[in-house]
Amino acid sequence: MTECSLNSIRYLRHIDLPGLGFDGQEKICAGSVALVGIGGLGAAAALYLAGAGVKHLILIDDDKVEESNLQRQILYTESDIGTLKTTASQQRLSALNSIIHITTHATRIVEENAHGFLQSADVVLDCSDNFQTRFLLNDVCCALKKPLVSASVQGFAGQIATFKPYLGAGHACYRCLFPETPPKGMVPSCPEAGVFGPIVGVMGVMQASEALKELAGIGAGLTSLYMLDSRSMQSKTMQVDKNPTCQTCSKL
Ligand SMILES: [Zn+2]
User: Fold this and answer.
1) How many domains does the chain have?
2) What's the pTM value of the predicted model, to 2 decimals?
3) Average pLDDT, integer, range 145-162
4) Gap from CA of 164 to ligand 1 centroid (Å)
5) pLDDT tens, position by position, 26-63
6) Which site among 149, 195, 212, 214 is 20 to 30 Å from 21 CA-CA?
7) Alpha carbon of 68 to ligand 1 centroid (Å)
8) How far is the CA of 174 from the centre of ligand 1 (A)?
9) How far is the CA of 69 from the centre of ligand 1 (A)?
10) 134 C-alpha vs ligand 1 centroid, how far in Å?
11) Distance, CA 140 to ligand 1 centroid (Å)?
């Protein structure tokens, strides 16, 4: 008996879903997802991944919960203020699904620890808020041949894509899209620009959706860049071409 069949009532709405079914749910129940950053994006994604019964969640974040986080980081409550996000989210997610296994790393992901943290993940979610981490995750996921679901939010707008450059021709990586870190000051950070709470949740939940599809082996990955402006509700997708001279993926 697998964990899925032992808990088939819990996952019934997935098992009933044409195209996902018991087989897909079993794969989700055997899967592992790493979330780098459990702020607004990661908080939303983690709830759906835990609810869906992903066997192993790896949570990486060195921040503590602050009052200004509560407007959009829906994993946390007022009583969590001052607590490490990894600690608070582990408690909240375990209360939602006590069967899943949660590993926490209350430290910043850097070149020296990234391979070790991400090695056992089937899918990696980039829920970070800085280019340095995004480039690092891209390079490591490329080397480890892991799907990378990358999302970011600015103001009222969000964007998301899934990168699998190791699949070869036609499959771009994050660095094919953004070869270099934009000059300082060109992209304002959250505290400078402000951020609309719900758009962070929308993008985080889309990351969870992409991860579950990857684990279950269903649907089509979001290989284009999907962009949504929540003020106008206008969305567009942009094809991401593989850069033949990309320093990360061109030699794969
Ligand atoms: Zn590339």
Assistant:
1) 2
2) 0.95
3) 97
4) 10
5) 999 999 999 999 999 999 999 999 999 999 999 999 99
6) 149
7) 35
8) 6
9) 33
10) 13
11) 12
Count of Cβ atoms closer than 10 Å to residue 163 Cβ: 31
Using the mean position of ligand 1's atoms as its centre, give its distance from the Cα of residue 207 in Å. Answer: 20
Poorest-confidence range of 3-7, 146-150, 209-213?
3-7
**Amino acid (1-letter code) at residue 11:** Y
Do 23 and 92 have their domain in common? no
Residue 3's domain comprises 1-30
Cβ atoms of 212 and 162 closer than 8 Å: no
Ligand 1 centroid from CA 149, angstroms: 14
Band (pLDDT 50/70/90 cuts) for residue 192 is: low
- How far, in Å, from the CA of 175 to the mean position of ligand 1? 5
Measured in Å, residue 171 CA sits from the centre of ligand 1 at 8
pLDDT of residue 168: 87
In a domain, 123, yes or no: yes
Whether 1 and 106 map to the same domain: the answer is: no
